[in-house]
Amino acid sequence: MHNWIFEKLQKKTFLIGAFCASCDANLVEILGLNGIDFVVLDMEHSPLDLENMVHMIRAAEMYQVVPIVRVYTPEGKLIRRILDIGAHGIMVPLVDSREETMEILDAVKYPPLGKRGMNYGRGPRWGEYENYVQQANEALSTFVQCETAEGVRSIKEITAVPGLTGVFIGSADLSMSLGHPQDLHHPEVDGAFHRVLTACKKQGILAGIATSSMQEAVLRIQEGFQIVTVMNDLVFFKQQSKRYFRGIAHECAGM
Q1: Phi and psi at residue 7, in whole multiples of 5°?
Q2: Could you tell me which of 232, 244, 81, 103 has the C-alpha nearest to residue 161?
Q3: Is residue 45 flagged as an active site residue?
Q4: Is residue 255 included in any domain, yes or no?
């Protein structure tokens, strides 16, 4: 078992990904074919279930795309089931404290580092346990999302929790929490982004952020964020289909 995130980061300084809300393994495969580094399979804002998730994880693995799952609750029972079917990592939204972060890591890690239980699922390769516990404790990624003013205030304590892979900023939600909805370049919002970035760098963990355009993604990478998402798969489809349909209609106007 390998940590593909860190293997990729040995070859380049940043990774580009996308949220997947389509629940469709075909779109994951297409993203992989186009060279994406990771996908976040989104349970928080989609009807994604575990049965579809397995196929999306397999599609990602075909192209060495890192499949991370964003859960809708920090409940340990759900996190463990997701890891059992083979997810390479977990992302938990709206984490505001050190205590929440420690509970999440308890669900991800096997004893003595956590409380995850053994099973015969796809994650541990159907019971081939040799070295799996140690490998899983080292290789599975755990990201928490900073999306509130409280999370920013607690960011030093959150980033200091041992075993955390990184913090991922939910930029839209954080801007709303700070009182500046969608104003991502407001000084208070931008300051919060950099406060999270600085705390991650100090602890030697990864700093990630959600962006909604190519220009925004480039800016955040230049600022030092190592993990960056651009939109989600359905938004990509919406924008490209709109561009094609409207372009044809414009060129053929009056015919």
Answers
A1: -65, -40
A2: 103
A3: yes
A4: no
Domain that holds residue 139: 4-247
CATH classification at residue 87: 3.20.20.60
pLDDT attached to residue 246: 95
Number of independent structural domains in the chain? 1
Question: What is the dihedral angle through the alpha carbons of 125, 129, 131, 133, rounded to the nearest 10 degrees?
Answer: 90
Q: Give the SS3 label for residue 86.
A: coil
Q: From the candidates 2, 45, 185, 194, give the one annotated as an active-site residue.
A: 45
pLDDT in the model for residue 221: 98
Which residue, chain included where needed, has tokens 């800016």?
A: 219
- Stretches where the chain sits below pLDDT 50 are none
Per DSSP, 116 falls in state P
Q: Is residue 253 part of a domain?
A: no
pLDDT value, residue 25: 98
Query: Measuring CA to CA, which residue among 50, 22, 49, 199 is closest to residue 39?
Result: 22
Query: What local confidence, expressed as pLDDT, does residue 49 receive?
Result: 97
Q: Is residue 154 part of a domain?
A: yes
Provide the pLDDT for residue 127. 72
